């Protein structure tokens, strides 16, 4: 009898993916027809190991900034090792262990409110608490009379900053491993698709820029829960993810399309209800302890103008007339971005409803989140992590992932060089090369959008469908509403 790790019915990328097949020549060639898996090194364990190695490489990449405690304003950009974490430790009051949503006038007079959703604020506060404990519980009263800049330059605080980043990194590493486990466990026939996540250069480079990986883990968990036929848990994870970053909310649109096609409203209602309840419960402590501070995130995002990575920044700089009545002011960008995004969502809905087979949740989720990022007024480099679990499941093809992620890596380098002033023309003016990086990044994303749309409208091109076993389920579980069999669906067709 073979163990689960020995089963030969899994889809092996070295057999079905041309790029993976070519790359495997350097390590012995594709998996043989009669090959058996290792008894202990199951696909999930291999994925987890490679994810850990990839994350560790990302930590090493930030090493030069860590050694300087992010004090060097030039090397953080030239070495591309910038992170928000060290600056927020002092800049948002964590050096004094202030609750992020306190309304204390003295605290608010010295420190800005955390401009992130509550999930990130809670995590950062917990990391600060561990940092203080690990630093011997320093007396914070001695810091009350000093400025933020002074605190950041003090040796004891610098030590705490480094420890704070380490503690945050360990927490994010756990979240990343959890996300990898969800992705590798989602489809029994295709665990190796998660390698595209585990070996992602975008993951290594962006993992420690901010705390976005917390929402990534919740998103991957929601995909896994839906594939397991657990709409309630799906909703809980969507609610938790939305309380950490807004974008997991958009998965509800994909669930709506799937449930409408299957004529089953109950799974969607359960998922929606669970998402609302979990979001409210997670936000309650912040709102009850500081309603005004809780609202800062919403005001901040509404009032900000065109920012890094967005097409609006390119248009703004091309116009180069910020005082003009025709300039892209914040309210103008808000209006147009939501109008375009709304139109995009309608298009995704129509594509999903007209598809010959019910699209998979990852496909619909990727299309919606990609549309949001393409028209958003800020597209920070780490936002690629939002797309990563959706993209690797929506289009599990090595060639397409390499094309897309190469544009993200190029942009990653350019955005730091741009902020460091290294791309500025000698004669002055805006850095046109940075515009090219933004447009190339958008082109890579649109390329993957086009491939996913083709897979939805022509399912015979979808790798997750055409490799199904003849005697197995006709449909991937993530395209079926819970409560309906994967083998008796009315629209299930072997492709």
From TrEMBL:
Protein family membership: Belongs to the glycosyltransferase 87 family.
Upper lineage: Bacteria, Bacillati, Actinomycetota, Actinomycetes, Propionibacteriales
Highest taxon in the source lineage: Bacteria
UniProt-annotated location(s): Cell membrane
Name of this protein: Putative membrane protein
Pfam family, one: GT87
GO cellular component: plasma membrane
Keyword Transmembrane annotated: yes
Transmembrane segments: 40-60, 116-134, 161-183, 195-227, 233-260, 267-288, 335-352, 364-389, 409-426, 433-453
Compositional bias annotation for Polar residues: 482-495
Keyword vocabulary terms for this entry: Cell membrane, Membrane, Transferase, Transmembrane, Transmembrane helix
Molecular function terms from GO: hexosyltransferase activity
Membrane disposition: Multi-pass membrane protein
Span list, region Disordered: 1-23, 464-495
Compositionally biased region (Basic and acidic residues): 1-18
InterPro entries in the record: GT87 (IPR018584), UCP010361 (IPR016570)
